[in-house]
């Protein structure tokens, strides 16, 4: 396995040349940001990821985080690495300066987060969950709770968790058995939660659990749910840590991957009841939790980018070193990177990763603009755009990371299947991303029902107008432009087909959703690659910068549009020709 | 994880209704075979797989086979299960009666082999390697060597291995460092081989290594290679076991999957030299080894079928049991099999598995007919057809098994990522199949260069004529027929495109090969599904048998043709529009 190197030039190209992220720095809320500062942050984050998180990725996979006598022991080096992360202020990049944050755009935080995910996905999950908890506090908690918890979470001194799932129903939250009972100024929580990422560990003094549960007398269903903060240690008035709360880890799961990230079964209130404080209003728990989940969904899409980048770097390095076979042109002995099918695999990895990355940062930009845009129109536009791009980012990137990390193994041949090489870990680590934070099936249903159908296609149409404008405003590559334009038309056609026919069957939306989402992902990818080709061409013409880098951007765009974009048509056909058979299936169809 | 049940009805449908395997039983060489006998064999093999091999699949994954002091210890129960396999004569189904075999068609052996692979892929590899060794002996060894080794291999009392790869070059055999030196009536072998499946174990008294190595004075390159048999224990003239040979296991690999199958580093001749006997002529080693490899390639494709079937059964069982969410039609609480996206995943798994299975058995039939067909024309026709279908079977099925086993995890949600559930093992076990026995890139190059271009497209044209005849000879499903016909035309177009343009660049063949192979796989799949629809329709009309089973065959065919076949067009576009950019890539294209 190669040493990880943060793709700083790639990031710079995406932020500055492809997406115009610097326009965010002009917004009043981001007065701290500047292009120079962001470059420096990206550079330093890359070094930190490579030097601190990457070296303990394999030991984390081998040792696992494991529950021992009610505590979780993290792998060698994790506690020290996390402390360095806190000391260097990496948790606070995009957080509110009022509580100690650095006030940079979310999009800038995402670049650093990409590097953490490439270097050590298991470790990256810990701050990711903390960031989610911060968002919940910031949006819904009382000022009193904010004052106690936000500074500690934003510094990273305490970490956060998210407690939704119970064993009898994973994604279905309508029938939770955990209960909260009012008691003095707080609530007593009793029940068991599963799949709690970093639910217990030895890296910080305190852990802040965000728990979804109904009040004891609440109505049944999701509308009865409220949200609570349940700290591992209670916090005294002076901010010092008090008693141990009545919450503990029961066990950790033995998983396919992300072994250093403890996935805990958590038990609340085995004795008197775990002390919790309500966040937001009674019955608003799920709505509050969605704040966290939307945020987390983009970050899970980004995990796909991070692991894909890592797999690509390892495969590229191996392909350059490994001498085997002969050149089809000269007959000379060559490194395997000289074989056209190896080049295909590498370019497939590369061009998909580039497309995924652009989608993640574009969605992140909309997240910044929906909150910090300088007029209401901008904020409204980007609210819709962010809502639309979120399920696509989460699901498309996490479907593709399985392909890219699998290709990473394939380039290594037999060595890829041997765990010592390290690339099988990326494949194992990646596999959870299409499941957690809402399975990709749930993302697809969200896209079709809430993002396409609910507003009668307005949001999708707006996005496709942006695409059409890209096509019209430039034309240096007529062949790429025509292929991309055909992809856009086809997506429009599929969108209209769904809008026109979804009332045909109760099963229609569910039957077409996945294929529609995948089609949209591939067309978005072509959009970014087309714009990337234009941007690179401009750079080449100006003679600025690294000409090989820009020439390779053009190659990647051509490869993607000619070899990957055709998949969008296949998914579109599967929607339009396949909706009938899809809607017709039932429980008896499988013998 | 559900208990495995051999898909006996499926097999019966494929053999009898879809492919007309019974016509083999009329051939003189298969006088032992009859439809009744084959039904009984399939039934019993299914029971054996379910009752003996399946129960130790998980323990094999947990314990691994491991090297201890120069021996390999297999997981609990493996030795006893293998002994039962030998006692029941399962090794000898399709072997030569002259040496103790049962003289059934290879295609019948493949049904049993599918079950072994579903039940316990690691275990199934051991007889698979032995079968390869048997083929090498049968085709190339002297009568003396045959008399010593064939009865013991055919009974399964001894097992076989295949020793090609060395650490400095995996797929490239032109520069092997292992050497063979003549000595008395035998050769002394010295060198190290890696990736030796079941290279050492404790299940049998002897292990028969087939070793590829150059004679000490042989010319460089693959033409200098010869083939040797190197038994673990030398064999006395009376057939009893003699001295331990100078061959030993150095270590076993720690792998992503197939953990119960020991993947050994083998050392030959650390002392005086390992005693080996030449098989075939000097310098003919690679040609002889290809006998084994062709055979093994179909069996690896079949591993894809076996693991896909297993993953499907587990997912279906879980989807029926797991209650979660509400019906989109009635709003009632339902099992997840009631959700259309879960139905999509299950039908994708099912329809791909069915297509893969039909391809495997169709290729196997050609293997039977190329050797045992009753006239030369038949044998010639099926020699070409087998040669063409082999790389498609190997590579297409092993690409798809990664998708199908991944969907198996996805249907389980978070539970799928937890190793205890057992379905992650299928995903891990499957990942090697696209690598070993010739990577899928090598298969694709074989298809394009040796099977398409070398005979100017004659073999491909013959296969496509068969497809066209299927379309013309029936027409109960005009919509399916038209879609299938379009797939055939497109494949013809891509084939012609390659034939017309492959001289454009030295890199052309390698750049298009993978996408061409995948296109051919999907079109073949549509062919089998189209015929399956016709066969099922006939059964439904006749009122014979299980009408739900046949109705579901129709559903699977419609699903495949409308939702999976569109992928063939995407791969075809990637060949025709992507050949240019593919051929243009070079070592500098990746920054």
From TrEMBL, chains A, B:
Its EC number is 1.3.99.41. Pfam families: Acyl-CoA_dh_1, Acyl-CoA_dh_C, Acyl-CoA_dh_M, Acyl-CoA_dh_N. Residues 463-579 form the Acetyl-CoA dehydrogenase-like C-terminal domain. It catalyses: 3-(methylsulfanyl)propanoyl-CoA + oxidized [electron-transfer flavoprotein] + H(+) = 3-(methylsulfanyl)acryloyl-CoA + reduced [electron-transfer flavoprotein]. Residues 283-450 form the Acyl-CoA dehydrogenase/oxidase C-terminal domain. Residues 162-268 form the Acyl-CoA oxidase/dehydrogenase middle domain. InterPro entries: Acyl-CoA_dh-like_C_dom (IPR025878), Acyl-CoA_Oxase/DH_mid-dom (IPR006091), Acyl-CoA_Oxase/DH_mid-dom_sf (IPR046373), AcylCo_DH-like_C (IPR036250), AcylCo_DH/oxidase_C (IPR009075), AcylCoA_DH/ox_N (IPR013786), AcylCoA_DH/ox_N_sf (IPR037069), AcylCoA_DH/oxidase_NM_dom_sf (IPR009100). The keyword Transferase does not apply. Involved in the assimilation of dimethylsulphoniopropionate (DMSP), an important compound in the fixation of carbon in marine phytoplankton, by mediating the conversion of 3-(methylthio)propanoyl-CoA (MMPA-CoA) to 3-(methylthio)acryloyl-CoA (MTA-CoA). This is 3-methylmercaptopropionyl-CoA dehydrogenase. It comes from Arenicella xantha.
């Amino acid at each position: 396995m190669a040493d990880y190197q943060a793709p700083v030039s790639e990031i710079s190209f995406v932020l500055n040349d492809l997406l115009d992220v610097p326009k965010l720095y002009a917004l009043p809320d981001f007065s701290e940001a500047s292009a120079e500062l962001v470059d420096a942050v990206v550079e330093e984050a890359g070094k930190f990821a490579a030097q601190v998180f990457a070296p303990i990725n394999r030991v984390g996979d081998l040792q696992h985080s494991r529950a021992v006598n009610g505590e979780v022991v993290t792998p060698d080096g994790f506690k020290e690495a996390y402390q360095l992360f806190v000391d260097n202020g990496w948790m606070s990049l995009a957080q509110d300066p009022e509580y100690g944050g650095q006030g940079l755009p979310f999009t800038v935080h995402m670049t650093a987060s990409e590097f953490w995910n490439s270097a050590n996905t298991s470790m990256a999950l810990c701050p990711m969950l903390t960031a989610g908890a911060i968002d919940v506090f910031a949006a819904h908690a009382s000022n009193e709770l904010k004052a106690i918890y936000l500074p500690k979470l934003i510094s990273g001194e305490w970490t956060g968790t998210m407690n939704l799932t119970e064993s009898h129903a994973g994604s279905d939250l309508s029938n939770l058995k955990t209960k909260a009972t009012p008691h003095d100024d707080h609530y007593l929580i009793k029940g068991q939660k599963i799949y709690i990422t970093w639910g217990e560990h030895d890296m910080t003094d305190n852990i802040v659990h965000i728990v979804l549960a109904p009040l004891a007398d609440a109505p049944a269903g999701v509308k009865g749910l409220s949200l609570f903060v349940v700290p591992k240690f209670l916090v005294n008035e002076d901010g010092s840590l008090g008693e141990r709360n009545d919450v503990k880890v029961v066990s950790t799961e033995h998983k396919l991957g992300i072994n250093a990230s403890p996935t805990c079964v958590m038990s609340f209130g085995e004795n008197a009841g775990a002390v919790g404080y309500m966040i937001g209003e009674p019955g608003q728990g799920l709505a509050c939790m969605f704040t966290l989940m939307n945020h987390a969904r983009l970050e899970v899409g980004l995990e796909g980018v991070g692991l894909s980048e890592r797999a690509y770097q390892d495969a590229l390095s191996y392909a350059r070193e490994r001498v085997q076979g002969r050149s089809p042109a000269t007959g000379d002995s060559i490194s395997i990177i000289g074989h056209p099918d190896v080049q295909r695999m590498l370019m497939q990895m590369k061009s998909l990763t580039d497309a995924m990355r652009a989608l993640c940062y574009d969605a992140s930009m909309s997240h910044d603009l929906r909150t910090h845009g300088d007029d209401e129109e901008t904020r409204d536009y980007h609210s819709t755009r962010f809502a639309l791009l979120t399920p696509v980012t989460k699901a498309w990137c996490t479907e593709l990371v399985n392909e890219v990390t699998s290709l990473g193994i394939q380039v290594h041949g037999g060595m890829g299947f041997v765990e010592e090489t390290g690339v099988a870990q990326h494949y194992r680590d990646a596999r959870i991303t299409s499941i957690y934070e809402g399975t990709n099936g749930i993302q697809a249903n969200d896209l079709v029902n809430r993002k396409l159908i609910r507003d009668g296609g307005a949001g999708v149409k707006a996005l496709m107008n942006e695409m059409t404008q890209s096509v019209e405003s430039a034309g240096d590559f007529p062949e790429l432009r025509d292929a991309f334009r055909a992809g856009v038309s086809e997506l429009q056609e599929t969108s209209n087909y769904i809008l026109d026919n979804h009332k045909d069957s109760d099963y229609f939306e569910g039957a077409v959703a996945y294929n529609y989402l995948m089609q949209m992902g591939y067309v978005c990818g072509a959009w970014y690659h087309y714009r990337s080709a234009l941007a690179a061409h401009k750079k080449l013409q100006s003679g600025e910068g690294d000409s090989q880098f820009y020439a390779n951007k053009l190659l990647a765009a051509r490869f993607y549009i000619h070899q990957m974009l055709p998949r969008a048509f296949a998914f579109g056909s599967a929607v339009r020709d396949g909706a009938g058979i899809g809607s017709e299936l039932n429980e008896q169809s499988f013998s």
